[in-house]
Amino acid sequence: MIVFFEDSEYFYKLTQLFEQHQIPATGWRNYDRLVEVLRETTPSVALLDIEIGEQKEAGLEALSTIKARFPRIKTIVLTGHPEYVLKAFRAGADGYLLKEEVAHALEYIQEVIREVMHGGIYMSGEVRKIIVDSLTPFENVNLNTREQQIICLAASDKTGPQIAEILCLKSQTVETYLKNIKTKLNCHTIQGVVAKSIRNNFINWEEFIS
Questions:
Q1: Residue 65 near residue 34, CB atoms below 8 Å
Q2: On the CB side of 207, how many CA atoms lie within 13 Å of its CA?
Q3: Can you name the CATH fold of 2-133?
Q4: What is the topology classification, in CATH, of domain 145-208?
Q5: What is the pLDDT of residue 66?
C-alpha cells in the first residue's frame, strides 16, 4: 500500500498512475489525519509533498512524525521545492524527487519506490548537485576508507548483507561499522549519515555514486 499527500494537480496524476498500474494507493490533500491514516492503511511507502496549503514545511513535520512513530514506512519527498533537500534527509527521508524531473515521465516514480523499498536512498542527479553545491565547513571528522566505502554503498541501494558480500566482510561487521559511523557523525539514521557526509565533503561523492 502506498499513501500520498498532495494538494496540487499531482493529486490527480498520482491517482491515475497508481490506478493504471493497479497499485494499491490512497491519497490525501493535507496532513490533518496523518497518524490515523497511517494506522488504518499500514502503507509500505509514503509520498510527501513539503508545502501543502498555507503550511510551508508541513511535509517535513509529517516526515519527522513518520520516522518517529512508524519507522518501517519508507518516505519519499515529491515536491517542487529543492530548498528543503538537506532538511528532508536530516529528518530521515529515503528519497527526494523534484516534480519537474518527473513531469513528463511520471512512471519513473515507480522506479524510485522500488529502490527505496529495497533499502536504497534515492537522490536524482539534480538533488545530488544541490547537496554538493551547499557544502559548508564542518568539524574535522575522520572517516577511514572502509567507512567511506560502506556509506557510499549504503547510499547506492545496497543492503547490509549486500555490502558485506561486496567487501568480503561478515554482516555483523558491517552492522558494527554502521553503528560506529552513526556515532562518529552524531546521526541516528543512515540517511542522516549520507546527507551529512555529502554536505560536509567527508567523502568524494561523485567518485562513488553514478
A1: yes
A2: 8
A3: Rossmann fold (3.40.50)
A4: Arc Repressor Mutant, subunit A (1.10.10)
A5: 93
